[in-house]
Q: What sequence folds into this?
């Protein structure tokens, strides 16, 4: 019933708290749709994970920017979020409270998405165990690959793609 990428997102979000991987998994899913058919709720959920990633690293400006955008997007996505088994009103309340906390430079605290579908929750908890993590566990601040993943990963593909896009844009401008 739910896309596999969404299940993975939830597991990474609540298990190892690997918000960067949440971003990667859901972005790949989102990109599979034609540009005209891309669903904004996926972007909003990606931004929630990215925001928490930045807050956990004490990058409050990045966290605030992402959370503000996520709230703006998700506040218009009630039906889609309910179809994803989330408690929509509670989710928005939690996101708004987290944004307030970010503006007050409060230390990072774990954040859980309010899941209404109990079958989805049970399935995700089982999947979390299968990858060796306990659902709802705390972030491992000693694990640099989770806390600082974006600065430690191989970015050669990303850089190469950006250079290709820049070249195409320049070529189009000159034509």
A:
């Amino acid at each position: 019933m739910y896309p596999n990428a969404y299940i993975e997102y939830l597991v990474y979000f609540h298990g190892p708290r690997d918000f960067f991987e949440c971003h990667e998994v859901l972005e790949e899913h989102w990109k599979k749709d034609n540009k005209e058919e891309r669903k904004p709720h996926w972007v909003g959920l990606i931004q929630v994970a990215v925001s928490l990633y930045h807050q956990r690293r004490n990058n409050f400006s990045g966290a605030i920017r992402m959370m503000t955008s996520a709230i703006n997007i998700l506040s218009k996505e009630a039906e889609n979020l309910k179809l994803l088994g989330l408690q929509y009103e509670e989710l928005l309340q939690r996101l708004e409270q987290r944004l307030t906390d970010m503006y007050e430079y409060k230390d990072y605290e774990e954040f859980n998405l309010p899941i209404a579908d109990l079958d989805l929750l049970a399935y995700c908890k089982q999947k979390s165990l299968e990858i060796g993590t306990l659902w709802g566990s705390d972030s491992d601040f000693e694990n640099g690959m989770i806390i600082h993943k974006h600065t430690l990963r191989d970015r050669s593909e990303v850089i190469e793609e950006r250079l290709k896009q820049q070249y195409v844009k320049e070529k189009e401008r000159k034509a």
About this structure: The first helix runs from residue 4 to 14. The mean pLDDT is 88.
